[in-house]
Every structure is written in C-alpha cells, then in structure tokens.
Repeat domain-containing protein
Amino acid sequence: MKKISAAFTALTTGAALTGCTFGASIDTLMTPPKLGPEQEQIYSKLTTSLNTSNISLKYPKSGKYLSAFIIEDIDGDGGNEALVFYERNNHAADENPLHINVLDKKEDGEWTSAYDIPAAGSEIEEVKISRLGSNDRVNIIIGTSMINRSEKNVSIYTYADGRLQEPPTFSKSKSYAFFDVVDLDLDGQYELFRLMGATSESEAMAEAFKLDDSGTYHRSYLELSDNFSDFDISYGKVGDSEMGVYIDAQSGAGSVQTDVLYMKDGALHKVFSTPERSAETIRPAGCGSFDVDGDGSIEIPVQVTAPGYGESPESEQLRLTDWKQVIGDDKLEKHYTSYYSVNDGYIFLFPEKWEGNVTVKRDVVNDEIVFCAFRDGKMGRELLHIFCAEDVPSREDRISSGYMLMHTKGDSACLALIPRNVDTEGDGLSITSGDAAVGFRYRD
C-alpha cells in the first residue's frame, strides 16, 4: 500500500497465464522467460553442479531485480558474480525447496557454481544490493516470504571467500511489512529501513540500520502511533529536514492514517508526539499522501464535509479534502483545499478565492461533479464541471459539447467544462480554462 508496487510486473514481458490451482506459487502460473546466452550458460553450470535439471527458477516479485539471475559484483573485487534463485521440484517433505546459488566467472569466461544455500522462505519478494553506512562491504539484502506471502523476512548476506554469510549483528527475527535501502539522514550513506506491522505480541515498529567500519549494524527503532498493518510509503521534505518518511498505514476497517518519521544524529524520530496527533490524519482508505504541488514536500490529505452538507445524512454527504503539510515539530498546516475523487484518481485544487465560498454537488443524470458558488447556506451558480469518461465515444461526445480534455489514460479520460453563465451577484468566483488546468491533478 514507496508505494509498494504491483508484484505481477516482476515477471517478464510476454509471460502468459497457463492455468492455476489454489495455493500454487505465482511462478508456476506464468510461462518462464526465454534465457539469454549468458543466462543459458549459467543455468547449464547450475544444473550440472546440482546433478539435476529438475528445478524451477524463482523470480523476485518487485524491485529493481526482477530476474531469477542477478549478475553483479557482490564481493567488491571488480568482477561479476551470479546469484540464481531456484527450487528443487523433487525435494524432501522436510526440506526448504528455495535455494540461492552463487556462481563465479573464471578468467577464461566460464561460470562455475561456488556456493549454495537454502533461503529463508518459499518466495523471493525483493532483492537489493548495496553498501550500508560507512562500511565498504557489499550487502545482499533479500526479502523472502512463506507460500501465502503473509510472513515475510529480511536477510542480509555478504559474499566473501566463496561463501554467502549472514552477519551475526543483524536482527532478522521479526516479520517485515516493508523494507528499503535509502539515505534517511542525507549524509551520503545508506541505511536499511524496515517496517513491521502490529501483531498480538508486538507493536507496529520502524527500524533503521547503519553499518560501521568494523562491520557492526547499529539499530535505531521506535514504535508507530497505532496498531498499523499494511503500509504505503512516500519520501519527501518534512519541516526543516530534507528527508522524511511518510507512512500511510491501515489503522482500521476502511481507514488509513499517517505517521511521519525522519532520521537525525543516527536516530529515528517521529513528527507526531502522541498517537492522538497522528489520529488527526485518519481518513478513508485509498486517500494517500501526495506531493500535490510538486515542491518536494508531501501533503497529507484530511477530509472535511463540504459546505452545505452539515445537516445531511452521512451517506449523502460530499467531502472536500484539505492537504496539510508538516510545519516545524508536531504541527500540520493546511496548504490547499480540493475535491479529491479517489475512485477516478483526480484532484482539483481550489483557487484561493474559492476557499469557503465554493462547494460541490453530484450531477447524477450527467454522471459528473459540479463545483458551485456557496453563499448564505445555499448553492449558487455553477462554476466548473468535471466528467470522467470510460471510453472513447463518451470522451469525444463531451469534447464536441465544449468540454476540455484534462487527462487521458488508455481509453478513459477526465474532462472539464466551464459554464458560460454571468456573475450577476458579483461573487468574483469565475475561473478561466487556464485556472482549471493549473488546479487539476491526476494520480496514476
């Protein structure tokens, strides 16, 4: 829920569905990709070393590395090694079938299998290869999961003297919900950042690991503001810091709220000093934090009842969205008001003159949202219509009626119309097509 990307794209272009059974691994549902010449050689050397070709290649579900073959310099010697993920098809019932094999390239260009080790889970979630902290050691960071993908673990390996080794100073005991390698404090060195969801035994938690010159991982951690589970992550400025982590977390059925973290002097810090301050950001699921004005700072959306709907049943109310920025410590300041259609993916930021003077209504007949002047508790003249077309004929029909094209995605499109009515009351709320273009945003 950075945002955590769709795992199905981790398999190769052109893969095709071949049928499925419940509980089957995703890798068994897709046609494997055609191997390149170097991968063919690596695969041949692997099967020769295993004395069997009865294996299945395993593919990371997300991230930079989406192949069963990762060819990188993992020991810092200037030459590449190959990491291959596979599972034995004829494994014993008590054996973990998922393995990692390391192959070295000899001076004559031939590959040879150097080391083989069982992985921590049944599926490869994501792989990152990076230095951490001030140490020059290359870290092979592998996220794995069990077959149901609910229990996930992060392991760190180093490759030296022909062996994959797990450093003893890194804690991997807790199941993670998200991990990344990122320079949290902008000191030019990377940290491993990890989030764990709440369980019956522990609170939701964030951790950051730095690696020092001696090879020791230093852990900074803190508890999050609620019993969070699923996470969506955004990075952006926070207060006086150039780098913050905005965590949109599922905090209840159909709702999400935000915690904001940053790193300073080697330690993680929370912006919201109390759980109650974080709870002020609770809103419906899908309403995610976003750099709505492109200035590098993330805004947190908070929904409010639109003017004129205060006495209406909640099911009939329309809502506006205030976009708030973190200002200083523990403070949120409203920067924009908007209408945010989560289902259709668009945001319309109100011009400053609309603040407190405009509301919205739904035109059921024409299936569009209408922005109206609001004065003395009543809706007035119409100022803007936004319509989302699901196909090309609907789009072309609206364009022929004078609508402006604001955004397209495949056959769907968002269009806007500025009614040609006269400001007889002198409210000064009319906007131009340029104003409409400036205020329109779309979230892919």
